[in-house]
Amino acid sequence: MERNLLFPQVGGFVHGGDYNPDQWLDRPDILKEDIRMMKKAGINSATLGVFSWSVYEPEEGVFHFDWLQEIMDNLYEEGIYTVLATPSGARPAWLDEKYPEAMRVDRNGVRNHHNGRHNHCMSSPVYREKTALLDRKLAERFGKHPGLILWHISNEFGGECYCPLCAARFQEYLAEKYDHDIDKLNHAWWTTFWSHRYSDFKQIEPPFTNGEHSIMGLNLDWKRFTTYNMNDFMKSEIAVLKKITPGVPVTTNFMKLYDGLDYRVMAKELDVISWDSYPKFHNDGESLYDTFGEAAFDHAVMRSMKKDKPFMLMESTPDLVNWHPYNKLKRPGIHLLSCLHAIACGSDTVQYFQWRKGRGSFEQFHGAVVDHLGTDDTRVFQEVSRVGSVLKQIGPAAGSVVKAEAALLFDWDNRWAIADMPGLANESKNYEKTCMDTYKEFLKLGVELDVISSGDNFADYKVLVAPMLYLVKKGMGDKLKSFVENGGQLLATYLTGYVDEDLLCYLGGFPGDGLTELFGVVREEIDTLYKTDRNQVCFIDGTCAQVNDYAEILRVKDAKVLASYQEDFYQGTPAVTNKQYGKGCAYYVGARIGQEAMQNLYINMLHAAGMEQKSLPVGVEFHVRSREGNQYQFYLNVTEEEAVISGVKGMDLVSGKTVNDTLVLPAYTAAVVEI
Ligand code: GAL
Q: How far away, in angstroms, is 206 Cα from ligand 1 center?
């Protein structure tokens, strides 16, 4: 079967990372040494120019690109490809001095001074114009360079701007959204409350710190607008590049579960998804298995935005970072393990921030492949070189994809709505954590979950879990019904279907939009528990589980009661139900209960869906990538003990040995078994 490689030029997995030679232009000896060392470490790609604006254009209209030409040529001659960034992630000082309107205004209405990076006003016409000019010049000069494989748009888009231009764009956005009818907005935002009716779109302001926050619809529409405006800026950069280099793919690097932008909107504009992963390995109080589990969830969020192709691990540290609360070294072996973990979860690249440590300024002590020591005999350099050779060994797996039959529903709108919902207990809402915990339970069962949005096609899956689906867009009810009707196994929990996409409560019973019929239950109240409160639910098979944080009081219409509350004034009332609906089954879990009990429900669902689960030793992660005719099974031992896994047959591409039933994995190691 033909391999669908992300970058056919590279011929396999990409191994590389951010390279900032512009910090070393006065040291040709170092630039020469870089290439020698890159080859030694098995590096085949370098990400250039991420923050190079002030070197490209040291003064307005004066451009210097020869240095980049030389670097790209030299790299290419040695078989190292270029991911070329547009430098819009940080502005030169002359730009802010001359055009202060390019600097962002914060939530207090105060304009920033020139500082840091990632702080531009996305509405600023002059910023857009200056960016477009530089992008055009880069595309014209380097667009046909044989070493160029990808455009990397800006860097880690994020943040908000409250300047008058952005406020005006927000008003235009709202006018457009509500058909220029202020009463439609008044209805959607329920503004008659506290005398908040607007008579003109011009009266609406962004949610300044000392401004309007009591209208949930305004807060949510501001978040949506920020995504819209950032995406619009990104699209303006992409348009320039695509016009000149239509054949060169584009990406931008996303961040871990970044809350400020709905990445699913931006993903539509990109050819490939890439992201920057910096897990807190070895942090106090968390097992390594949990840290890896969380990273697997993060990878799944990214992977699921474009399921038909691999994603890119655009940045990771070969060593440590300098911005965690405690900046601990990755222990020996963890680097290769975490790289294989990203590959196992669907990445076709392992890329670092950064190649060589800078001498000064904020990132001088951030980990890099080459230390200030400058030699190729350091532990980190050797671990990176090992990754380089293992990526070659497992090369046949490049281009294969993860195909999940189960999915978890996770919407940005929903996370924004839950975070802003007045009620419950802010410290225990934990929407993201609840999704991650759910994901981890499936991981223990060796079952891969995609992390999808309510806009995705549910028919691709047999099992769907939707924790805390508070915001249910109109139409979702029918979509979920037809999923179950056609044989799907669905599980929803407390807090499902309280509000629609305008954040207006459903009338006539939650879960709304027709879901009371699907689940056969109606929620009447929700109780918020203190940490010291105690309650339990007991199942009909006699097992019991503790209730934490939330308990809904349910009326059962026509569902089977699986468990009931044991304490309090709602003792004896139903807590967990299921209902056959068409060919499938819909579970409703009205309380936050222990994961062990949840796992039993998941097992029932998998069983009914005819899906296999695996029996894995504790602390072993399992993932599968495939393409027609080939399957690659990844086993990762993320514990400090040896793990023995039986029932494994095939060729382990990492060790080069055939496995015949028993796979023995020493601590912190992984196998990639080709079958
Ligand atoms: C990323 C950023 C990089 C570098 C890195 C350090 O967020 O994109 O430029 O700063 O963090 O960990």
A: 29
Give residue for tokens 């028919």. 459
**Which pair of structure tokens corresponds to residue 665?**
């994995």
In a domain, 292, yes or no: yes
Q: Among the options 237, 294, 315, 621, which is catalytic?
A: 315
CATH of the domain at 46: 3.20.20.80
Q: Report how far ligand 1's centroid is from the alpha carbon of 121 (Å).
A: 20
Cα separation, 410 vs 656, in Å, equals: 39
Total length of the chain = 675
Q: Is the CB of 276 under 6 A from ligand 1?
A: yes
Distance CA 67, CA 46 (A): 15
Q: Note if 315 is an active site residue.
A: yes
118 residue type, one letter = H
Q: How far is Cα 435 from Cα 111, in angstroms, rounded to an integer?
A: 37
Q: Give the Cβ contact number of residue 616 at 10 Å.
A: 16
Q: CB neighbours (10 Å) of residue 492?
A: 26
| Residue 223 forms part of a structural domain | no
For residues 51 and 33, state if they share a domain: yes
pTM comes to 0.98
Last residue of a domain, one of 370, 397, 424: 397
Residue 301 has a pLDDT of 98
Task: Specify if 657 maps to a domain.
Answer: yes
Q: 254 near 274, Cβ under 8 Å? A: yes
CATH code at position 645: 2.60.40.1180
pLDDT, residue 286, reads: 87
Distance CA 559, CA 511 (A): 14
What parts of the chain have a pLDDT lower than 50? none
In this prediction, residue 1 carries a pLDDT of: 54
Residue range(s) defining the domain that contains residue 645: 620-674
Q: Sheet of 630-637: strands edge to edge?
A: 620-627, 630-637, 670-674, 643-652, 657-665
Integer Cα distance of 207 and 219 in angstroms: 7
Q: Is the CB of 155 under 6 A from ligand 1?
A: yes
pLDDT of residue 2: 64
Catalytic residue from among 156, 237, 269, 552:
156
Please tell me the distance between residue 66's alpha carbon and the centre of ligand 1 in angstroms: 26
Paired tokens of 98: 């001359």
- Examine the residue annotation and report whether 294 is marked as an active-site residue of this protein: no
**pLDDT score of 62:** 98
Cα distance between residue 162 and residue 217, in whole Å: 18
Tell me if 298 CB under 6 Å of ligand 1. no
Nearest to 406 by CA among 444, 455, 458: 458
**Structure confidence at residue 3 (pLDDT):** 80
Amino acid at 570: Y
